[in-house]
Amino acid sequence: MNCIEIKDLSKSYGPVTALHRVSFDVERGEVFGLIGPDGAGKTTLYRLLCTLLLPDTGSATVDGYDVVSQMDKVRRCIGYMPGRFSLYQDLTVQENLEFFATLFGTTIDEGYDTIRAIYSQIERFRNRKAGALSGGMKQKLALSCALVHKPSVLLLDEPTTGVDPVSRKELWQMLLSLKEHGITIVASTPYLDEVRCCERVAFLDQGRLQGVGTPAHILERFASVFNPPGINHSGNGEIASDNVIEVEHLVKAFGDFHAVDDISFAVRRGEIFGFLGANGAGKTTAMHMLTGLNQPTGGTGRVAGFDIRTEHEQIKRHIGYMSQRFSLYDDLTVAENIRLFAGIYGMSDDDIERKTDELLEKLDFAAHKHHLVASLPLGWKQKLAFSVSIFHEPDIVFLDEPTGGVDPATRRQFWELIYDAAARGITVFVTTHYMDEAEYCDRISIMVDGKIKAMGTPAELKQEFNQPDMDHVFTHLARQATRSSD
Amino acid sequence: MTLKYLIQKEFLQIKRNAFLPRLIVAFPIVVMCVLPWIMNMEVKNVVVDVVDNDRTTQSQRLVHSIEASNYFIFGGLKPTYAHALHDVETSKADVVLVIPRHYSKQLAQQRVPQVLIAANAVNGTKGAMGSAYLSQIVTGSLPAPHHAAVVAQLNLYNKHQDYKLFMIPALFAIVIMLMCGFLPALNIVGEKEAGTIEQINVTPVSKWAFILAKLIPYWIIALFVITVCLLLAWGIYGITCRGSVAWVYVLVMLLALFWSSFGLIISNYSDTMQQAIFVMWFFVVSMLLLSGLFTPTRSMPQWAYLTTYVNPMHYFIDAIRTVFVRGGTWHSIAHQAGALLAIGSVMAAWAVHSYKKNS
Q1: Which strand (E) or helix (H) includes residue A306?
Q2: How far is the C-alpha of A453 from the C-alpha of A277, rounded, in Å?
Q3: What angle do CA A188, A192, A193 make, to 5 degrees?
Q4: Which residues pair with A245 in a beta bridge?
Q5: Is CATH 3.10.450.50 the classification given to domain A235-331+372-485?
Q6: Nearest-5° angle of CA A238, CA A239, CA A242?
Q7: Which residues of chain B have a Cβ shorter than 8 Å from any chain A Cβ?
Q8: Which of A35, A112, A461, B131 has the greatest count of CB atoms below 10 A from its CB?
Q9: Helix, strand, or coil here: B221?
C-alpha cells in the first residue's frame, strides 16, 4: 500500500518553476531518499507535502489524506524536520521537546516509546540549552521533537548537512530503526553513503523528476552527477620547503573549557592542508585564531610570517577567507561583490574591471555578472565566494566547510578551483565533513576534543590506523571523543 | 581609498532594500505633516456645565460669554450641583460653574460674590487650564470696578504662542534620532546575523574605515531629511528659521554624530536585532522624555534635572529652539554646541574602541 502518492505536482514562484509535473509513490514503511542538486525543488516538495504550500496543479496524498482538502489530518500524521533552525536555541533540551509535544496535545511520556532510542542518547543533557549542543546532538533533538507525537510519516529535509561523519552514521542508524515502528521516512541528503541507506530514491533536477529506483540503479544511471571521476592532483611537486603556517602549543580557553587544547602543526607553502574534526572539536576556533579573528589564550603561531597575537592586521593582508556561513552580500550583484572585496584589498578600479571580466569568463559566469547573489544556486555562490576570497592573490586561503550541502558533481568542480589555486602557489587550508574531499588533500590533520590526534598524508593515515579509507580513519578516531558526553 | 568601495556598497544595499528608500522619503513627510498639529499643549473644547442658582440678567450674561468662547463647549444648565457632578463622573463635562443665589444682588451692592469652579483634574493640564480660562471669563464679565489691575503680557519671540513654531525644531531631534541612531545600529547587527561581518573582519580594512563607511551614508540621509523638513515647515506652515540655517545644520550634524556613535556602541555589544532594538528603544524613550521636548526641564525634580547635563537631546533641543525660534547666534548656542560635541566625541571614541576585529 502506498503511504504517499504524488500525481503531476507542479509549483511555480512567479517566473521560476520549482516543480514541474512530478509524480511518484512511496510505500508504507519505506525509507525513501530524495536527492538532487541545490535548487532541484526538494524543499518545495517537502513544503507541499507538509501543507505549508499549496500546489499549482496536481495532487498529493499523505497517509491517505489529501494535502489540500484534508490539511488538518495531514498535519497530525506527519513529522517534519526542516534542514536547519527547527529548535528554539534558548530553550533547554527538555523544554524544546515538551513544547513540541504540547503542540500536538501529547506529552513526552506518551510519545516516549517512539523516541526512546534517540532521546535516551541526549537525555542526560536535558537541562542544557539547545543552542549549546553540538551539530549532531541538535539534529538528534530535532528528530526527537519531530517524532514525539508518533507520526506515521517523517519528512527530513537534509537532516545531516553540517554534521560530522560519526554523528551522521548514528543518526541514520536511528532512522533505520524507526522502521520497526512502521514509520515511513522521506529524507533528502547530499551524502552518497546516506543515499545508499535508502530503499528507493527519487532524483530531482531543476524541478523535474529524472528517475526513481534503488540507490544502486539511480547512482549508476546518473553517475556523471553522483560519482564524478576523481581528480588528478599533479601539483605535488610544487610544494616548497618553507612553512607558511607554524603553530606551537596553541590554546584557546573559554573559562574552563579548552576549545583548542595545545595543538602544534606546520603547513608548507603551496600545500593543500585538510583540517578535519567532528562538530565541536575546535576546528573553527583554531581557524579564527589563525585568521586573526580571535586572540589565543596560550601558545604561539605565525601565519605568512606574522605573529597571530600582535600582527593580526598584517596577516589579514596576506590571506583569503571563506566562512562556513555564506560570506558574500546577498543584496549585491556578482560584480558588485567582487568590486567591494577587491577594493578593500586596495586594487585599482581598472584592475578590478579587467580581472572581474577574466574571472567571470573563466568561471563561465559572464551572463550572471549583474545578477544578485541571492538569486544564484548554492553551488555557484560557493564557487564565487571562493574566487572572491583569492581574488587579491593571497599567500594562504582559509576555507571553513566550503562545500556544505551541495551534490558531488558541484563539489568536484569546486575542488578543481582549489587545485587551480594551489597550482598558482596559494596555500589552501580547508575544513570539511566530506571524507572523499579529505582524500584530495596533500596532508590532513584530524582534531578530536581540541587536540590533533593524527596528521599526515591520506595514505599514511590509512596505513597507520589500518583502515581502508579516510571515512573509516575518521570514524575510528572520532569515536574516541569524550567531549560530547561530558 | 577603501572607504569609497565601502560607502558605495552601503548605498547599493540601501537602494536594494525594498523598504528603506521609501522610509527615508516618507518619514520626514509624515513627521512634518502630522505631528505639529497634534503636539499641542493648548487646551480647547472644554465642556462646561453651569448651575445657575441666581437666574438673573447678570448670570445669563455670564453664561452667554461662556457659550461665545472658543475654548468652551457649553454643556447646558443643570438644576443642581449634584446633577452637574454626575456629568463630570460620566465624562460628559470637564468643568462645573456654580453661580450662587444673590449673585447679581451682591454685585449691585458692591460686595464680592463667590462663584464655584469645579474642574475634573484627572488630566491635570486640562483641568488647570480650563478653570484658569473660566475664571478669566468670570472676571471679565464683571462690571468695571471689579476688574483687577490689568497686567500687560508681552510674549517675546513667539508672539502668538504658536506651538507649531515651538515643536517643529524639536521634531528635527526625533528625525535624527531615528535616521542616525536606529538605522546604522540595525545595519551592523544585520551583518552580524548574516555572517558577512566575519568576512569583513578577516580583511585588512581598518576599523575607522568600516565604521565611517557605515555612518557617512546615514549622515547624508540625515542632511537630506532635515532639508526636506525645513522646506515642508516653510511650505505647509509658513514657518522659517529665524536664525541662520547654517547653525541648524551644524547642530543637526553634532546630534547625528552622537546618535550614530551611540547606535554603533549598542550594535557592537548586541548579537541579535531583538536585543539591539530593545536596548536602543529604552535609551531613546528615556532621553526623549528627559530632554525637555514635551515638558520644561526646570520643573523636573532635582535628581532628574541633573540627567539633562549628560543628555544630548536636551542640549540639542535647547539650542535648536534658540536658533530656530529666537534667531540666536553662535554666542547663544556655543555652550550647547560645545556640550554636544564633547558627548558626541566620547561616544565616537567608544564606538570605535568597542568594535573588535580581533578579540
Answers
A1: strand A306-307
A2: 9
A3: 105
A4: A267, A303
A5: no
A6: 135
A7: 1-2, 4-6, 8-9, 12-13, 16-17, 194-196, 198-205, 357-359
A8: A35
A9: helix
CA A366 to centroid of chain Cα atoms: 28
**What is the residue whose three cell numbers read 572520532?**
A478
- Type of residue found at A91: L
Strand partners, A456: A444
Report the alpha-carbon angle B305-B310-B314, nearest 5: 65
What are the grid coordinates assigned to A456, written together? Answer: 599526515
Do residues B221 and B28 lie in contact, with contact meaning Cβ atoms separated by under 8 Å?
A: no
State CA A398 to chain mean position distance. 17
- Topology (CATH) of A2-226: Rossmann fold (3.40.50)
- The residue ranges of every structural domain in chain A are 2-226, 235-331+372-485
Which helix (H) or strand (E) segment is A397 a member of?
strand A396-400
Q: How far apart are CA B164 and CA A430, in angstroms?
A: 64
Tally C-beta pairs within 8 A across A and B: 82
pLDDT tens sequence across A337-358: 999 999 998 888 899 999 999 9
How far apart are the C-alpha atoms of B277 and B187, rounded to whole Å? 11
B4 contacts in chain A (CB < 8 Å): 343
Q: Are A40 and A207 in contact (CB under 8 A)?
A: yes
Average pLDDT, chain A: 86
- Chain A residues whose beta carbon lies within 8 Å of the beta carbon of residue B192: none
pLDDT digits (tens, 9 = 90+) for A50-99: 888 899 999 899 888 898 888 888 888 888 888 766 788 888 988 988 89
DSSP tag of A229: P
- Residue B257 · residue B249 · CB < 8 Å: no
The SS3 of residue A79 is: strand
Residue type, A156: L
Q: CA-CA distance, B248 to B255, in Å (whole number)?
A: 11
Closest CA to A188 of A380, A38, A42: A42
Q: Which of A315, A322, A344, A393 to mutate to test the interface with B (most CBs of B within 10 A)?
A: A344
**HSE-CB of A222 using CA atoms within 13 angstroms:** 23
- Judged by CB atoms closer than 8 Å, whether chains meet at B12 and A332 is answered as yes
Contact: A292, B202; criterion CB under 8 Å: yes
Per CATH, A2-226 and A235-331+372-485 having the same topology is answered yes
Spell out the domain ranges in chain B: 2-39+159-354, 46-146
- The single residue listed with the C-alpha cell 472658543 is B70
Q: In chain B, which residue's Cα lies nearest the Cα of A388?
A: B199
**Could you report the per-residue pLDDT of B245-302, keeping only the tens digit for each?**
899 999 999 999 999 999 989 998 988 888 999 999 999 989 888 888 777 777 888 8
Query: Is the distance from CB of A340 to CB of A329 less than 8 angstroms?
Result: yes
Q: Is A316 in contact with B204 (Cβ distance < 8 A)?
A: yes
Tell me how far CA of residue B266 lies from CA of B184, B191, B271, B347, B355, in angstroms: 10, 14, 10, 11, 10
Given a contact cutoff of 8 angstroms between Cβ atoms, the answer to whether A477 and A446 are in contact is: yes
**Helix B124-141 / helix B57-68 crossing angle, nearest 10 deg:** 130
ipTM of the complex, rounded to two decimals: 0.76
In contact, B133 and B69? CB cutoff 8 Å: yes
The x, y and z cell numbers of residue B303, run together, are 535628581
B157's CB contacts (< 8 A; 6+ apart) are B242, B325, B326, B327
List Cα–Cα distances, A396 to A43, A290, A429, in angstroms.
36, 11, 7
- Pair A132, A91: CB distance under 8 Å: no
Cα distance between residue A432 and residue A273, in whole Å = 11
Distance, CA of B217 to chain centre: 26
Q: How many helices (H) and strands (E) does chain A have?
A: 18, 20
CA–CA separation, A298 and A260 (whole Å): 10
CATH superfamily of B46-146: abc type-2 transporter like domain (3.40.1710.10)
**A123 contacts: CB under 8 Å, gap ≥ 6:** A93
